[in-house]
Amino acid sequence: MSTILTAAGESLIARLQAEGKALIIDTMILANVPGQDHTQAIAPGVTVPAEDQIALRYAIPPQYRAYVNPNQVVYSAMLGSDMGDFVFNWQGLWCSEHNTLVAVGTFPALEKRRYDEANGKTGNNLTRNFLLTFTGARELTGLTISADVWQLDFTVRLNGIDERQRLANFDIYGQAFFDADGWLLQKTAEAYAFAPGLGYVGGIRAALAESLPLAAPESANLPQKVWLDVCLKHTGSDRVVEASPMLTPPAAPLADSAADETGLMHYRALVARIEADGSVTDLRPRKNAGILPIPGVDGVTIINNNNTLIVPDVYVRLAADMTVYVSISGDDGNNGLTPDAPMRTVQMALNKVSSSYNLGTHIVTINIAPGTYAERVRLPRYQASTGSISIVGSGIDSTIVAGMSLDVDATYSITDLTVSAYAQQINPWCLAVSSGRVACRNCKFWLPSNVTGAYSYMVWANNSGLINLGATGSSGIQIVSNATAYHMILASSGGRIEIYDHITMSGAVSVACACAQTLGSIFRNGTSNPTISGSVTGNRYIATLNGVISVNGGGASYFPGTIAGNVSSGGQYV
Asked: For residues 156 and 191, which has the higher predicted lDDT (pLDDT)?
């Protein structure tokens, strides 16, 4: 399902808030739009469908208009069995007073049937709810009725609880952790089987109650890497853990997380390698791979000393800077500590560092050989005092990595490489930072022509995330879109982007070259006074919803574009 607050709705909300007038949403429109793809993002300029596509205009009773919290309101339509027959896959909220379509949602087609006693035809009852979220929603709409349970779909809330639990486990156990002999692959005669026990993969708890056989691969196909693929699969009204082994050739890349054709996320861990002679090498991570030590594991104990919690260090403390090598000809079973024994994937190299070492005051360099690495890299949290991790390629035309994200409080630098959008992701981004800091030096951010989705962000700082574009010693930044990007650079919800060195931009944008919204900020360094060159088709900039763009004297034409920038709803461009 896709939803959007329309451009007309945003404009109306901003105007009424400024005028101190109420927003009255009184109608829910249901329609059947042929050829609609509910998995695609909705265009902000969407309008009401043609009259012959509209199935119902439902007058929303006052008691079906309610608030959830100060920034969320919900509107409901109760479609009884006396209504029908029609099919609909589109719903919109309409303000009759101002003739404005405020919000739109799309979804797979639903059938509304009317009960017909004469023909013995059964009907159905449907409840359609539409939740709106924006600052001051309750005050602007003047709603005083609290939302009842039937007005809320708790599916998203429950999924959110599952995700928070997964992330909490991830913080403790890291990408993968196995206790004792849990999921240990063993060979007996010519048969292979996993030992029962416990493991965590991507934060999901995978418990094996009894031995699980693994089909023996053909000897001609050896050696093979063995992975454990884990997901939370929907079963009825529940979500249950499903864990399945996977075999891949030694050189085949495999991302540590990926969505299947239904959008369900799968998380993987390398657990073993079956060698050419049929023997098994155990590759399960056996020590704490997250930020929190685990009591009772690998000799870790917790001692209460004068009401102070003391946790002995479970990481190897670095005594000097260290380099981990990655190459497309490498193997994730290698330790990566020498150029002739590189690892295969950037993600596994980062996981190794974050799970095994305390950096202290030292720098760990992930040295990436030339090649295209078709993996979306999640930058993990690591142990350090003032040390950090530096990811270094072999040149922007030589090393390409398909997407990077940072959502934990950590500091990284990336240098001499291209970060492209992950083509298998709908509405992809090149670099997304929602916590921590990433400093970029001599980097190229590239949106390929084969990406899908209307919302493609190239460089995105969100929440408390900070991105530095360029720094001392940098050779500049390139931002190149071969598709149509939503924004070249976006700072939202408190995120911040700082420009320190020259940027070359090219391509087209559907909204704006630079956008700062909802307290996000984009800042041009006033000492280095970096410039931006290139040709971009679309708006130069948008500063809205208290977002701030500071160009320090760069002027209204600082960002390239064919349309003048604009400021609205408390935004600033200075």
From this structure: 191
Q: Among 92-96, 427-431, 502-506, where is mean pLDDT lowest?
A: 427-431
Retrieve residue 103's tokens. Answer: 């919000």
As to burial, measured by CB atoms within 10 angstroms (0-12 exposed, 13-18 middle, 19+ buried), residue 279 is exposed
CB 539 within 8 A of CB 515: no
Q: Which position has the token pair 């916590």?
A: 435
Label residue 473 by pLDDT band (50, 70, 90).
Answer: low
Radius of gyration of the chain (CA): 27
Identify the band that residue 298 occupies on the pLDDT scale cut at 50, 70 and 90: very low
* Dist. CA 201–CA 191, nearest whole Å: 25
Task: Return the pLDDT at 301.
Answer: 41
Residue 353: both structure tokens together: 């560092």
- Stronger pLDDT, 12 or 150, i.e. the higher one: 12
Q: Give, for 349, the enclosing helix (H) or strand (E).
A: helix 346-356
Alpha-carbon gap, residue 180 to 344, rounded angstroms? 27
What pLDDT shows up at residue 313? 46
Output the pLDDT for position 152. 56
Q: What is the structure's pLDDT at 57?
A: 96
Q: Please give the Cα distance from 240 to 243 (Å, whole number).
A: 10
C-alpha distances in angstroms, 547 versus 9, 16, 457?
19, 20, 17
Written in H, E and C, the secondary structure of 56-104 is EEEECCHHHEEEEECCEEEEEEEECCCCCCEEEEEEEEEECCCCEEEEE
Q: Which helix (H) or strand (E) holds 112?
A: strand 100-112
- SS3 of residue 169 by DSSP: helix
What phi and psi, each to the nearest 5 degrees, are found at residue 434? -110, 0
Q: Which two tokens stand for residue 517?
A: 């919204």
Please list the alpha-helical segments (H only) found in 74-188.
137-141, 155-173
Tell me the pLDDT tens digit for each residue of 252-279: 888 889 988 878 899 999 999 999 999 9
* Mean pLDDT of the residues in the chain: 88
User: How many C-beta atoms surround the C-beta of residue 553 within 10 A?
Assistant: 10
Amino acid at 5: L
Separation CA 29–CA 60 (nearest Å): 10
Instruction: Give 408's contacts (C-beta < 8 A, 6+ positions apart).
Output: 379, 380, 381, 435, 436
Q: How far apart are CA 249 and CA 222, in angstroms?
A: 8
- pTM for the full predicted model: 0.52
Strand extents, DSSP E, 116-220: 126-133, 176-178, 185-188, 191-194, 197-201, 204-208, 212-214
- Would you say how long the chain is, in residues? 574
